[in-house]
Amino acid sequence: MNDLSVRLLATFALVLPAVAQTSLTTVYTAGNSLNSPGSVMWNATVLNANGLVVTGFDVNCENTRNGPVGSVFQVDVYLTALGGTYVGNEANPAAWKLVATGTSVSLATGTPTFVDTSDFFLPSGQFGMALNFVIPTGQLGTAYAYTNGNTTNQSFADAHLQLDLGSASSGVFTGAVYTPRVWNGAIYYEAGTQAAYGPYGTGCDGGSPLGAPTLRPNVTNGVPRLGGTFEQLIGNLGSVPDVGIMVFGQSFQTWAGLTLPLNLQMFGMPGCLAYIPPDAQTFFVHVGSGSEVFTANLPNSPGFAGLVLGTQVFMLDPATTNPLGASITNLCAGRIGT
After folding, report:
1. For the segment 40-68, what is each residue's pLDDT rounded down to a tens digit?
2. What share of the chain is helix, strand, coil (3-state, %, to 5)?
3. Contact, 24 vs 161, CB < 8 A?
4. Residue 279, exposed/middle/buried by CB under 10 A (0-12, 13-18, 19+)?
């Protein structure tokens, strides 16, 4: 357990202007559709340097294949790693990580059906994004409507976000792939001071037989709120005590003029990626229990509202085989807020 001091957080002190929730819409012209379970995919590029908190989606339901209008359905939201793309990964489950889910009731085709998903943070940069339409147990579900792409209807953008569409698959990252396909819907997001945190990308095992350590928000206190306790769970650790370094960074694009994510081969960790610069670090001791909860007590100061933050953990692990003797987790990123 570790307390991150106000002095450490002050390294990143920043006040950002609040921006109300807004949305970016594609089209609702439909013209084509597929049954669920299945996926629609595209690339999302966050143009806002301070990132966005995604709060929900509108989708276009097709109500003749499965359940009629008024049917309950589920949407799961997946992302590739930061810098990734949906192209070539339509049938590659390993490229995707589930970041949010939500349920709704289908409205008529051509009418936006809102799905209130769990909130998640998107740092600046490009991601592959996928919406998987799922039939909940005991429900009829709905199919998803989309539009065939024709090069003139595949890109949508505002000041904060750009969408480049896209494709569809007849399964959850399996089955036939259809391209180009234009997702019908809207993304709702907030670009101001709402708190959110989530995992992105992949870790690196450094040759350890345990595999890569993992980092994610803890089940309790997993969102960094002003004046609150923020907990991150470091998992897949060994039974032998070792030392970890929690790294904090505020950029997801560059580090000392180098493009992120950065291959750490030059530091003795070939194939391992640093997703953030080491703007600040703190050491902790892992006692060998297989996991560790890292705790930060956040100041109740308006100056920290909207602070964008990324975290990644190095484990100095005797089981690793690379020259540095370390493994590294995936990235977690988000925003300190209300």
Report:
1. 999 999 998 888 999 999 999 999 999 99
2. 5, 45, 50
3. yes
4. middle
| Domain covering 6-15+194-336 in this structure, CATH number | 2.20.130.20
Cβ-Cβ contacts under 8 Å for 207 (sequence gap 6 or more): 319, 320, 321, 322
Dihedral sign (CA 292, 13, 55, 29) = negative
Amino acid letter for position 127: F
Q: How far apart are CA 331 and CA 255, in angstroms?
A: 15
Segments making up each domain of the chain, as ranges? 6-15+194-336, 22-190
Strand pairing class (177-183; 143-148): antiparallel
pLDDT above 90 for 253: no
Superfamily the domain 22-190 falls into: PHR domain (2.60.120.820)
Which element (helix H / strand E) includes 9? helix 6-9
CB 336 within 8 A of CB 305: yes
Query: What is the biggest distance separating any 2 CA atoms in the chain, rounded to whole angstroms?
Result: 60
Q: What is the β-pairing status of strands 326-328 and 254-255?
A: unpaired
Angle subtended at Cα 20 by Cα 229 and Cα 103, rounded to the nearest 5 degrees: 75
Rounded Cα gap, residues 125 and 97, in angstroms: 17
